[in-house]
Amino acid sequence: MTSSIVVVTGANGLVGSHVVRALSQRGATVRAVVRRTATAPDLPGVEEHVGDFADPAYAAQVVAGADALVTTVHPLGSGRDDQRRVGLDGTLTIASAATDAGVPLVVHVSTAGVYDRSPGVGDVDEDGALVPDDADDYGVVKRDTDAALARLGGATRVLVRPPAILGAGETSVWNRVQPDRLRDDEAARHAVADTTFAWVHVDDLATLVADLATGAIAAVADDVAAGPVVGACTAVNVAGEPATRRDYVGAVCAALGVEPTWEDGPAWTGRILADRALGWGWSPQVGLADALAELRAGIAATS
User: Fold this and answer.
1) Residuewise pLDDT in 10s, the chain (303 residues)
2) Is residue 66 within 8 Å of residue 2, measured between CB atoms?
3) DSSP code of 228?
4) Would you say 39 and 33 are in contact if contact means Cβ atoms under 8 Å apart?
5) Which of 122, 93, 136, 82 is nearest to 7 (CA)?
6) H-type helices in the chain, by residue range?
7) Nearest 5°: phi and psi at 128?
8) Rounded to the nearest 10 degrees, what angle do helices 91-100 and 56-63 cross at?
C-alpha cells in the first residue's frame, strides 16, 4: 500500500475513473479533478476537486503538496482549436503548475495515435516516426502535447501511449461510440480485414498508470529499459495481444446483427510494441477474447 498523494484530471472519464480506482486500491490519496460536482468516483481515499485545471490559479492550488500528477483529459470529437485549448494548453498549464510546485512526477495519458501507422510502416516502438502536420487533428494535437511536455523540464515525465482502449463505460469510444457508429452508418462497416487493430483494455492501462504514479514502477537514473528516467521525459507504449479489424469490426457487427463489408486495399499490419512496459514489470491481464466478450455483452445490454 502507498501513502502517495496523486492528482488525476478527468477523474470521471473512462480512463480517469479507472486510474482513480486503481490508485484507491493501492491506498493512495487521490485528488480527483472534475468539472461538475458529485461526478468523481466515490471510493476510499478519493477527494473530489471541482474546477478548471486550465486555470493557472486553480491548477497551482490542486497540485500543491502532491507526489504525482496524472493527466487524462482530451476533448475527442471536437475541432483542432478546441483540442489544442483543452488537451494541449490545459494539460501544459497544470503540468507547469506541478513542476513549479516541485511535484516530482507527471504521468500523461497520450496515445499511440501520435505514431505514423501508414501502410508499409512496420512495428512501432517508442522511437517510431510521428504523424505529419497534415494528419488527423487528434494525432497532431496529442503529438504536440507530448512535445510540449518534453520541453517542460523539471519533473520526471512519462508519456503513456495506448492504442484503442477497450472497456465498458458510458464514454467509452470503442465499446460505445464506435459500435453506435457502426450500427447507424453502413459506410463505417467497410474495412480492410487484415488491418491491425492495436488495443489495450482500460483496466490494464490503469494498472500501468497507477503503478507509475505510486512508484511501484520506479524512476531510474539512466536505463530506460528499467523504468522512466529521473528528470527526463520518457514515452512508453501499452498494448494488448495482436488483433485485426476483422476481430473488432466483426465482433461489433455480429453483436448488432449487421454485416461488415471486407474490402481490399493498403493497410497497416504492424504492431504497437510494448516491450518497454513489459521490461518495467507491466503485463496485460485482459486477453482479446475476454475484451470482445465484454464488448458484445455491452452491445446486447444497450440494444
Assistant:
1) 678 999 999 999 999 999 999 999 999 999 999 999 999 999 999 999 999 999 999 999 999 999 999 999 987 767 778 888 888 999 999 999 999 999 999 999 999 999 999 999 999 999 999 999 999 999 999 999 999 999 998 899 999 999 999 999 988 999 999 999 999 999 999 999 999 999 999 999 999 999 999 999 999 998 999 999 999 999 999 999 999 999 999 999 999 999 999 999 999 999 999 999 999 999 999 999 999 999 999 999 887
2) no
3) P
4) no
5) 93
6) 14-25, 56-63, 80-83, 91-100, 137-152, 178-184, 202-213, 245-256, 275-279, 288-302
7) -65, 155
8) 50
| φ and ψ at residue 223, rounded to 5 degrees | -105, 95
Amino acid, single-letter form, for residue 19: V
In the Cβ-directed half-sphere of 165, how many Cα atoms lie within 13 Å? 26
For residue 53, what is its C-alpha cell?
485545471
Q: How far is CA 96 from CA 106, 233, 236, in A?
A: 10, 14, 21
Amino acid at 200: V
Closest CA to 205 of 16, 69, 30: 16
Domain range 5-164+199-239+271-284, CATH architecture: 3-Layer(aba) Sandwich (3.40)
Amino acid at the residue 283: S
Whose CA is closest to 90, among 155, 9, 160?
9
Report DSSP letters for 94-154, one per residue. Answer: HHHHHHHTT--EEEEE--GGGB---TT---B-TTSPBPPTTS-HHHHHHHHHHHHHHHH-S
pTM, full prediction:
0.97
1: number of Cβ within 10 Å: 8
